[in-house]
Structures are given as C-alpha cells and as structure tokens.
Design brief:
The complex is a heterodimer of chains A (283) and B (53).
Chain A lengths: L6 E5 L4 H12 L4 E5 L16 E5 L3 H13 L4 E2 L2 H7 L2 H10 L7 E4 L2 H11 L3 E4 L10 E3 L2 H13 L8 E5 L6 E8 L2 E9 L12 E4 L4 H13 L4 E9 L2 E8 L5 H7 L3 H14 L1
Parallel strand pairs in A: 1-2, 1-3, 3-4
Antiparallel strand pairs in A: 5-8, 6-7, 6-8, 9-10, 9-12, 10-11, 12-13
Helix pairs in contact in A: 1-9, 5-6
Chain B lengths: L1 E2 L6 E2 L9 E3 L6 E6 L4 E4 L10
Antiparallel strand pairs in B: 1-2, 3-4, 4-5
The chains are: A alpha+beta (283), B mainly beta (53).
C-alpha cells in the first residue's frame, strides 16, 4: 500500500499513543515526518518540512496553539484544527460553546477577580470546584467545601502571580459515583468508551484512576457526538459525569491520551485516528 | 547499550525509538531516548504547567 500524502506527527515525546500512531501509519503505507515541538522553528513563510497534513500530539497547550496556527498559515490542514484546540483548551470558552449548542454541562460561574470569586462560589453553593481556565490532568483544581476554605484557596491562587490564576472558573460539585465516563469521538464516529474509576474526586486517568470498557448507550453516544460537533469536531475525548440530573459534559479534550482506553477496550484507537487523518488529507 | 543516568543500570535498545519515554526497570525514573543511533537516553523532560490532554 502506498500513500499520496505525508503525515506530519507534531509531538513532544513518544508515549505509547504516539508509538501506536507511528505503527498504524506504517501498516497503512503512510509516510510519517516527525515534527518535534522542541526543535521546529516557524518562519512566516513555509520552509523546511514536507508534511501534507499534521496530526497534533504535542502535550503542551501553548506549543500546540502557535504551531497549529502556523501550519494553518502554511496551508497545511491539521488534526485537530487550531480553532478546536484553542476552544477546548480554555474551559471558559468551551463551556460557553457547549451551552450555546445545548449540551448539558455542570452549573458554572466565572469570576475575574478574587473578590468576585467568593461571590461566584456563593452563587454556585458549597461544595464547589474551582479550576484554572487553562490546565489539564486535574492540576491546581480544588474542591472547596466552605467559605473559609474558599478564602484560603483564592488567596493562594492569587499569590501564584499568573494572570490565568486570577480568573476563576467555578463549577458545581456533581455528586457522582466514584467514576466518570470518557467517550472517544473521531469525526462522526464514537470509537470507544470507558468508565474511569478513582476514589479521588478527580477521575483523570493521569491521576492514577483505573479504567473499564463501557458499551455506550444511544443517549450517551448522541450526547458525546453533539459535544464533539459543538466544539468543531475531529479527534476528541468527551468527558462526562453521571449526576443526579443525568449526564453532563465537563470537558472535551482536543489532544486526548488513549493508552488506558486502548487497554480497557482492546480497540485500535490509534488506527481509527490515522484513518481519520487520511480521510481529512483526501478532502 | 547505554546506562540509566540516574542509577547506572544498563539499558538495552530493544525496540525503543527516538523520542520514546519509558521507565528505568531498576530505579523507575522516567527516561527518554534522545538518540536511536548511537543509542542514548537521558532523563525525560519535566512536565510543564501547560502540559496535558
């Protein structure tokens, strides 16, 4: 089998996911150009690389954003596109888009100063969850049980100095089972789903939770697809919680990990991703 | 063949590829293949604040 295009793999490190992607491309006869985010330079006029389409697997949100915008500028399609990554990478913008599309999300209030953050927490009610607008792997997220705790956490966040830690994304704490749901969507297809278990209230697999395959109900599939489409579609992991009022989408990940998902389901997620990239390249 | 920069254990290339991260089988520190030929490893890059999914 031979390919009419070269796939550029934009990456930081080669984790199992990236290794599987390289293997899947090789099995399909797709030549791969490795584009290491620590080494590339980006002039305003394209030079120095030959990829016809770029699959973003950089683990750095900032590097991803600038690089994707440059690839777009060079006329090279990317999976995912810049707009999708920019939107999903900012919890505030993602919440707005999901709400606009009618996707159920946890009740959310945003505050722009420490003083307003206390008001936002009062509006949401305790316990609540305080998250940085940009950030992953559950980093610097806090479950806030009462006002006294809120005052301390907000003071600490403000002391971090970064302007992004002075924007407060406050979300209701959803009393859920010790698990959440991840649905992996590629294009229009739900390719795999799993429960992520953890006794920690953050169920991110990166925090050491365990995973179990899940056969998604039609309702879950439809909701995950709707969330993926709302943010622009592509290769996306939709994270949902099962609350007392039903399913809510709390995050859509634009550069998702799928090691745990592959292990739990046995599904060749990397192959699905590469097939989708090939489909986009043919458009 | 090279050595873990942390504990000195011998590390074989096997099917590792450039850029791949893996734990040292002895001390568990996360390593990165910085060169496949000649085979070299170093400590994996530290996670930065904007790293994630």
């Amino acid at each position: 089998m031979s390919s009419a295009f070269t796939l550029g793999l934009f990456y930081t490190v080669i984790r199992p996911e990236e290794k599987w992607i390289l293997e899947a491309a090789e099995a399909r006869g797709i030549p791969v150009e490795r584009l290491h985010d620590e080494e590339l330079t980006f002039p305003l006029v394209r030079n120095g690389f030959k990829a016809d389409i770029v699959l973003n697997r950089s683990v750095s949100h900032s590097r991803s954003l600038y690089a994707l915008r440059f690839f777009e500028h060079y006329g090279v399609p990317t999976v995912n596109p810049y707009e999708v990554v920019a939107l999903c990478g900012d919890k505030v913008l993602a919440s707005l888009r999901l709400a606009e599309a009618g996707v159920p999300t946890p009740r959310t209030v945003v505050a722009l100063t420490p003083e307003a953050a206390l008001k936002a927490l009062d509006e949401v009610g305790y316990p609540a969850v305080l998250k940085p607008p940009i950030g992953s792997w559950g980093r610097l997220m806090a479950k806030v049980d009462d006002r006294e705790e809120a005052e301390q956490i907000i003071e600490h966040k403000a002391a971090l100095g970064s302007p992004m830690h002075s924007i407060f994304y406050v979300q209701e704490y959803v009393p859920k089972p010790e698990r959440d749901v991840r649905v992996f969507v590629v294009g229009d297809e739900v390719v795999a789903a799993m429960y992520r278990y953890s006794s920690d209230w953050r169920t991110n697999a990166a925090r050491g939770g365990s995973a179990e395959a899940l056969s998604p109900s039609p309702e879950l599939e439809a909701l995950a697809r709707k969330a993926a489409q709302a943010v622009g579609g592509g290769v996306l992991a939709v994270d949902l919680m099962e609350g007392p009022d039903g399913l809510t989408v709390h995050e859509v990940n634009p550069t998702p990990e799928f090691k745990a998902l592959t292990a739990a389901t046995g599904i060749d997620v990397a192959g699905k991703v590469v097939d989708y990239v090939a489909e986009v390249a043919r458009r | 063949m090279t050595e873990c920069p942390e504990c000195g254990r011998a590390i074989e290339k096997k099917n590792l590829i450039e850029g791949e991260i893996f734990p040292c089988p002895d001390c568990g520190v996360e390593l990165e293949v910085t060169s496949a030929e000649p085979f070299r490893v170093d400590a994996a890059p530290h996670e930065e604040e904007d790293w994630g999914e």
